[in-house]
Amino acid sequence: MFSVEQLQAFITTVETGSFSAAARRLNKVQSVVSQHVINLEVDCNILLFDRSGRYPALTEAGEKLLPHAQAVIDQHQRLKNSALSLTDNTPKEITIALDEGISFKLISGIISNLQNEFPNITLEFLSASSPDIIDMLKNEKALTGIVFSELTIPSYLDFECIGSIKFDLYVAKSHPLANQVCKNIDSLRLHRQLLIRSRNTQSSSFQLKLSPNVWYADNYFLLLELALQGNGWCLLPNHIANESVESGQLVKLPLEFEEMGWQANVDVVQHQRHSNLAVFKVLRLLLRNLL
């Protein structure tokens, strides 16, 4: 019968590319990891890796088994997290991380309701890009994140959508693009793009690189300042751009295709280890349909 250790050794070898790298990640000696994989192959009665090259390569059977093995490990982790939460040990301090592009004013109204129900909890608020927040949740530096939806959410996170925020393309009033109607997306490629990416150089799934000339920032307020100085065009949440638009410093890009903006979904994400606790369930309920 398959064991969790066998499946973990198999999956980690695939993810890291070698038995030695898998052993380092799992904090085991290489021989133990290799033996777990061999035992799994014996139980399956088929080779899962082709070992003829320098690095092990998945066989066709290994490719078929991989998603099922991953599903079992994910469910095993969820079971462990559920068991740990049975005593409902509400943490004394909760860190909520918020993407800079999401207005804190939108959620500030619910904070007093959460505090009234859990008066002994200390709250901490952090601001970062969505990919950085997902990294924080992985390391449990934050326990709840409010982020723009990503195409891929790690299996250790639970999430639900709480609404959306409108984005549009903007440039400074002084920028050459402000005085012409862009007939297609190729017009934008001729000018510098200002783009959000995380501190570990990951970009959000809807922040697409279109121009060969790009400057980066890790938050939307820096992006706004770069745009106001005429350094390029960018995609901004409307609520961040509005004040500068009203003052005449910033304009929505004149486009023949009028709607090249984006309705970005906003998710609340929580680590499975904590998402079943009462305080996090209440927080999700308060955030639900907020936008």
What CATH architecture of the largest domain would you give? 3-Layer(aba) Sandwich
Number of domains: 3
Q: Structural class, from secondary structure content? A: alpha/beta
Return Rg in Å. 24 Å
Number of helices: 11
User: What is the overall pLDDT average?
Assistant: 83
In angstroms, what separates the terminal alpha carbons? 48 Å
Description:
This protein has 291 residues and is of the alpha/beta class. It folds into three domains: 4-84, Winged helix-like DNA-binding domain superfamily/Winged helix DNA-binding domain (Arc Repressor Mutant, subunit A); 93-163 and 265-287, D-Maltodextrin-Binding Protein, domain 2 (3-Layer(aba) Sandwich), CATH 3.40.190.10; 165-264, D-Maltodextrin-Binding Protein, domain 2 (3-Layer(aba) Sandwich). It is 41% helix and 22% strand. It contains eleven helices and eleven strands. The strands form two sheets. Strands 3, 4, 5, 6, 7, 8, 9, 10 and 11 form a nine-stranded mixed beta sheet that branches. Helix 5 links the parallel strand 3 (93-99) and strand 4 (122-128). Helix 1 (4-16) crosses helix 4. The longest helix is centred in the first third of the chain and has 25 residues, at 60-84. The chain is flat and about 70 Å long. The mean pLDDT is 83. Pfam families: HTH_1 (PF00126), LysR_substrate (PF03466). GO terms for molecular function: DNA-binding transcription factor activity; transcription cis-regulatory region binding.
